[in-house]
Design a protein that fits this description.
The protein is an all-alpha fold. It contains seven helices and no strands.
Length: 244
């Protein structure tokens, strides 16, 4: 099996870059903003780990793993539901003369998002089918041969999604072509939605009440602050306004 992983990964990477070319999805990246984003991400990771180590129980560690999987599985769907509302607001803010270009640039972003979500959804569905078939035929000697090809297809799809994510998640599906500030806006909204979903499913983080509130609000608030700073720098450094 390890011998087959490399050709599967190489083929999936080639197809992911062919389907979603990294150079096509342009985004204005401010090096100062990128540096602050990395610092914020590492600080959030350290703070979350410290809270789990000091106040967490074995159940809290298990819930943290569940929340991570929930973010991975739910983020594309939340983005698919959130993006239309944010884009509609931008369309309302933009002058009528800018809307035709925004509308034409929106189509490739929507197409990329739908294709990515289709691949993202197909991977677990294929795995469930392979597991069901393997369990149904486990008493037969030829079962491994029948499930081998579908399992290889599942691995290929997982690699494809991972390599596509490296391009599409960083550029938020190329939505910067619609408006340069749209990726930052989507990030600022999406992080609060994920926090609300985590609160409903897992409840408050462990620790004293003050630590719980800081852990619950600090993450999305800091992400929103960095996103708003990015929008402000787009305005002051590149002349990008929400109404432009």
């Amino acid at each position: 099996m390890p011998v087959l992983l490399y050709p599967l990964a190489r083929s999936a990477r080639l197809q992911a870059h062919r389907r979603f070319p990294p150079y096509v999805y342009r985004r204005i990246l401010d090096p100062h903003v990128v540096r602050v984003q990395k610092i914020r991400a590492w600080a959030a990771l350290v703070a979350s780990s410290l809270i789990l180590v000091v106040y967490g129980t074995e159940t809290d560690l298990w819930e943290a793993q569940q929340q991570l999987m929930l973010r991975i599985a739910g983020t594309p769907w939340l983005l698919l539901l959130t993006a239309p509302a944010v884009i509609l607001v931008l369309f309302r803010l933009a002058p009528p003369s800018a809307r035709p270009d925004m509308r034409s640039n929106l189509r490739p972003a929507v197409r990329s998002a739908l294709q990515y979500i289709a691949a993202f959804t197909a991977a677990p569905l294929l795995f469930a089918v392979v597991a069901f078939v393997g369990e149904s035929l486990e008493s037969y000697w030829f079962a491994p041969f029948i499930t081998f090809v579908p399992l290889a297809l599942v691995l290929w799809m997982v690699f494809f999604v991972l390599f596509a994510s490296a391009t599409l998640v960083r550029t938020v599906f190329g939505t910067s072509e619609v408006h340069a500030a749209l990726p930052a806006l989507l990030t600022g909204v999406l992080v609060w939605e994920l926090a609300a979903v985590n609160l409903v499913i897992a409840g408050m983080p462990p620790g004293p009440p003050f630590i719980q509130v800081c852990a619950l609000i600090g993450g999305p608030a800091s992400v929103s602050a960095v996103a708003w700073w990015e929008i402000d720098r787009l305005r002051t450094r590149h002349g990008v306004t929400l109404r432009g």
